[in-house]
Write a structure and sequence with these properties.
- By secondary structure, this protein is α+β, with helices and mostly antiparallel strands.
- It has a single domain, classed as 2-Layer Sandwich (S16 Ribosomal Protein, Chain: A), CATH 3.30.1320.10.
- It contains 2 helices and 5 strands.
- Strands 4-3-2-1-5 form a 5-stranded mixed β-sheet.
- It is globular, with a radius of gyration of 12 Å.
- It starts with a strand and ends in a 7-residue tail after the last helix.
C-alpha cells in the first residue's frame, strides 16, 4: 500500500520534513517513490513549501492513503486535494 507521509531531514534539533509518497512498509526516512513537498516547522509563516497538489491528487486517485499529519497540514494551509 502507498502512503503519503513525512520524512525527517535537517540537523539535530532543526528538523525539516519532506512530504513523500512511499510504500507503507518502508522505514520513515527510507527510499520513497516521489517527493511531493516540504514542511519547515521552524518558520512562523509560509512553512509549507513547494507542495505539488496535482501529484498528491494523482497518488490519492491511485489508492494512496494520506497520513493524519499531512492531512492536518494541508487543511491548515487550505490546500484541497481533488480525488
Amino acid at each position: 500500500m502507498i502512503k503519503i507521509r513525512l520524512t525527517r531531514r535537517g540537523r539535530t534539533k532543526s528538523p525539516v520534513y519532506t512530504i513523500v509518497a512511499v510504500e507503507s512498509d518502508r522505514a520513515r526516512d527510507g527510499r520513497f517513490l516521489e517527493r511531493l513537498g516540504q514542511y519547515d516547522p521552524r518558520l512562523a509563516e509560509d512553512n509549507l513549501k513547494q507542495v505539488n497538489v496535482e501529484a498528491i491528487s494523482k497518488w490519492v486517485k491511485q489508492g494512496a492513503v494520506v497520513s493524519d499529519t499531512v492531512k492536518s497540514l494541508l487543511k491548515k494551509h487550505k490546500i484541497q486535494i481533488h480525488c
